[in-house]
């Protein structure tokens, strides 16, 4: 190497599960721009284009160097003409006309705002937009708009749950959940998953995700309802700890083959919570309408409870990132004739389910090099 070229010496795979992606992003200006376009196509319900921009962004995130000109990207996968044109514009002039136009588009801005509320997805946001609503006060004042319980909590705790959760807060929550788990069953298994399992350098996440199970077969669902009961009873300074709780019972059925849908929800018992965390002050103080003069904050918490023999699949599936998961499944299907989801791995050639007790077992079945959780930030 003569040191004059910044192009990669090793080939970069089209699959995120064959790349190592930490939270250090050397191409943030480019990936932020591509993700704006991905999101706008998601709102427009054009999934193909959305995915193309997400894949392009994900490839750039994995690079240990900064792209300085389009020539640097020669040989990189997943960079289509559209993505390249956007990148070229940014590299030359500092911004992209299409991205700026999207960011100032009223519909994009409104859907972005509405979907930032817990419980409001693209469908509801679109419906409100078509009804002429443009702001939260429009929504809250509109006659005939019914907010479900989740959306009501989403508006009530909007300031807190749209504010990042720090590592210290995640740790405090871990202790709180751990205490509830121990009180229900001493032999329970509790593990941090989701973003906080992937972040090393990064300090913040948007919620805290846990897997909880027990070695006693069939007891995992009781365990989860037990934990919820325990948290409901726990009272801190006159207030309950649980500000919101949606429990989904298990619909898990071992006979089913893995789903072909990438984004399909898994069938394990799970709950989506908003928890009151005492002393949750972060540096810089509390922001938002709820913030002032309190010693607590609301935090979003997800708990999922698979049976112990599904633990490795659930852990791998819930650790993310979403792009990493999508590509694991795509790789399994396209390169190995296998079907992977949060419950199982099925070999279509051998016509059999492959057992796994660790994530490493699953990577090995797929013939993939093991990728550490903090390298899965694709
Ligand atoms: N997930 C899933 N099924 C769900 C919800 C989540 O399989 N019903 C998986 C997703 O693959 C995701 C992970 O669980 O990667 C965690 O989801 P989420 O908390 O939304 O995202 P994070 O990756 O944790 O990022 P953040 O810090 O924003 O929470
Ligand atoms: Mn998360
Ligand atoms: Mn998220
Ligand atoms: Mn989550």
Automatic annotation (TrEMBL):
Binding site for Mg(2+): 207, 209, 302
GO MF annotation, one: metal ion binding
Subcellular location: Nucleus
EC number(s) on file: 2.7.7.7
Catalytic reaction equation(s): DNA(n) + a 2'-deoxyribonucleoside 5'-triphosphate = DNA(n+1) + diphosphate
Annotated keywords: Magnesium, Metal-binding, Nucleotidyltransferase, Nucleus, Terminal addition, Transferase
Major place of residence: nucleus
Cofactor: Mg(2+)
GO biological process: DNA modification; double-strand break repair via nonhomologous end joining
GO cellular component, as recorded: nucleus
Function: Gap-filling polymerase involved in repair of DNA double-strand breaks by non-homologous end joining (NHEJ).
Annotated family: Belongs to the DNA polymerase type-X family.
Protein name: DNA-directed DNA/RNA polymerase mu
Lineage: Eukaryota, Metazoa, Chordata, Craniata, Vertebrata
Gene: dntt
Shown part of the complete sequence: 134 to 511 of 511
